[in-house]
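Researcher: Re-running this chain for the archive, since the previous output was lost when a drive failed. Same request as before.
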Amino acid sequence: MRVVGRYRIHGVIGTGGMASVHLGRLRGDAGFTRLVAIKRLHDSFATDPSFVAMFTDEARLAARIRHPNVVPTLDVVASGDALFHVIEYVHGETVAKLAWAAKQARQSVPVDVAVRVVCDALLGLHAAHEATDEQGQALCLVHRDVSPQNVIVGVDGVTRVLDFGVAKARGVSQTTKSGGIKGKVGYMPPEQLYGEPVDRRADIYAAGVVLWELLAGKRLFAGEGGEDALALALTAPVWRPSIHCSDVPDALDEIVLRALERDRDKRFTSAQQMADALVKAVVPAQPSKVAIWVKALAGPAIEKRALMVASIEANQETGTDPAEVEASVEDRSLLGEPTTAAITMAPTSQPRSHRLAAVLAVALLAMTVVVMALVWVSFSSNERMSERVVSATPTNTVPAGSTQSTATEATASVAAAASTPVAEPTQSASAEPSHKVPPTPPKRWRPPVVAKPNCNPPWEIDENGHRRYKRECLR
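Model: Regenerated structure tokens:
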């Protein structure tokens, strides 16, 4: 954990090319606290003036946008050479991760859900396009990087636009280097790819690509390399999304194709206009339905992050220093861009498992002692019975004149009585008569009488959570 000003910076929940995003906690006066997300510029860029200017411009521009469908910027903090953006924490997942999860589950995105997600994003973009400066002058802001990675859907069912890192507006200090393209090629309109000046219609084109991909369940321009994607974006035909999803109505097809016109003059003139057209073509899903869809696809990841959030809010240690936790291994999203999976905090202690293991160990020890005691009692009982048989055997009691066979029969009967219930072969009639005490028959072990085991259920759960069947229930 790191403390910067009023903020405590905790574990990483996402990372990008320029910055990483951490969970944070604002600590104010009178015990006031608030959970936030803190975007930290990577050290390799923190000393580059152009990147610092871009990072600062993002915060200044985003702070001018006030709309429920835009993630607001709350503060900017500088600590030494490090720069931090403090933004509102949204409990949810990006469209990129949700689309990937839907593909993994072999599910299509419901048409009304896709329309609701893109309509919300369009309304947020329209607020950005209409933003003004302190004097009321239009900023002419263009996001320029609208993509599934920069659109997040909360568990409340509301979609928000984030990351204005490459936004372009009147009077910003950052400039684009000659020949450089900022953003994701697959979501850029031709004028942006050619390096021409862009306006709000560039964001409308990008929103059209996102909607097409949500409906079709695949990438629109999926090239193996940067040059392939560039060539496809400039020349590849754009087919109706209904070819890939029969649930898409014709009116929705027309809206998507109009947004994807390569000639900007043929597109919608504003994001609000496109949103209004979508609402007329398809009734958007209610936020409650979108929330259910999000939880169904990203429930486990959201629950894990919720545990981390609860730990931070309760001011408890999670067992691992969150500042030392790295973002998990990258996944490949459905839409082709690398995205970082939600962080997983590995528990360092399992008190319930340890208590269960201790109880099982004590029970096993007690059972072993009981079995050994029963075996000892059984052996002692057998020895006493043998002694009684030996003491009851007559010695030198063969009457005078008895035949050899009579003595033999008496000896055989004694042997048979001592060995009950296991029968022993009788001595041969030719055996020599003996007036001595006959040898004690070999001791036979008898299984101890043990109470009927409890076999409901016939298994136990060990300390590792594995099911182990009870030995006494396998007989």
